[in-house]
């Protein structure tokens, strides 16, 4: 019975996620599902990304947290539309939660929508939102064993951002092992090594977003 219920929940979510995807495709909005464990640097990455690209791209953000609106308040200071979702205990966002926020955005005027999922290395990878791609952040402070421990997150992601590389001299973490184990799970994974604090490596991430957003707009007759 439990397996049947879980399957039904996932199937219902996928149906709503497909409806969300149709809306995003119709407006030409690129949607990124940003995932990581708590404290890996998602919100700081968003702040730096907004600062770098807000004059080039029309951006919006959906913030997911179990409680509080602190992250949404940080993003709102950047002057772009942001909606906070508090899950009230759920460890991930789902398609229905995203659908409920869409009335707050002008999708026709939005080129890039980034969803900051709840900090968790398991559940967010299992639930589709209607996104174009999943992007994962892994902090070097978390260690280099995470690909082998949480393979689904790496398998589902299109991009892996290895953050806080400025701290490598102070932690026992091997970038080579992270890369090797990640690509073993997902050979198509794009990996960027960066530091949101110092700005090291961030331009490669910005350029990936520019190209991905332009490609999405090019696929839609606006």
Q: Please mark out the parts with pLDDT under 50 across 5 or more consecutive residues, or reply none.
A: none
Envelope shape: globular
| CATH T-level fold name | Rossmann fold
C-alpha-based Rg, rounded: 17 Å
Oligomeric state of the chains present here: single chain
Walk across the major sheet and give the strand order: 3-2-4-1-5-6-7
Helix content: 40-55%
What is the name of the CATH superfamily? P-loop containing nucleotide triphosphate hydrolases
The SS-based structural class is alpha/beta
Cα separation of the termini? 47 Å
Number of helical segments with 4 or more residues = 8
User: What string, H for helix and E for strand, traces the elements in order?
Assistant: HEHEHEHEEHHEHEH
Largest sheet: 7 strands, parallel
Number of domains: 1
Number of strands: 7
Global mean pLDDT: 93
Determine the strand fraction and express it as a percent band. Answer: 15-25%
CATH top level is: Alpha Beta
């Amino acid at each position: 019975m439990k397996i049947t219920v879980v399957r039904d929940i996932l199937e219902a979510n996928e149906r709503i996620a497909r409806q969300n995807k149709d809306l995003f495709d119709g407006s030409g909005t690129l949607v990124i599902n940003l995932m990581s464990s708590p404290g890996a640097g998602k919100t700081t990455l968003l702040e730096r990304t907004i600062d770098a690209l807000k004059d080039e791209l029309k951006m919006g953000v959906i913030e997911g947290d179990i409680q509080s609106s602190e992250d949404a308040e940080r993003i709102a200071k950047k002057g772009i539309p942001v909606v906070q979702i508090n899950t009230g205990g759920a460890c991930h966002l789902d398609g229905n939660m995203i659908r409920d926020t869409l009335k707050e955005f002008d999708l026709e005027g939005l080129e890039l929508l980034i969803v900051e999922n709840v900090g968790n290395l398991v559940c967010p990878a299992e639930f589709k939102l209607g996104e174009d791609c999943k992007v994962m952040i892994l902090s070097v402070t978390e260690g280099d064993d995470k690909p082998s421990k949480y393979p689904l997150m790496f398998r589902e992601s299109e991009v892996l951002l290895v953050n806080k590389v400025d701290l490598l001299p102070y932690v026992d973490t091997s970038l080579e092992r992270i890369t090797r184990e990640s690509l073993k799970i997902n050979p198509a994974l794009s990996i960027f090594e960066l530091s949101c604090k110092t700005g090291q490596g961030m331009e490669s991430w910005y350029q990936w977003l520019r190209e991905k957003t332009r490609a999405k707009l090019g696929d839609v007759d606006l």
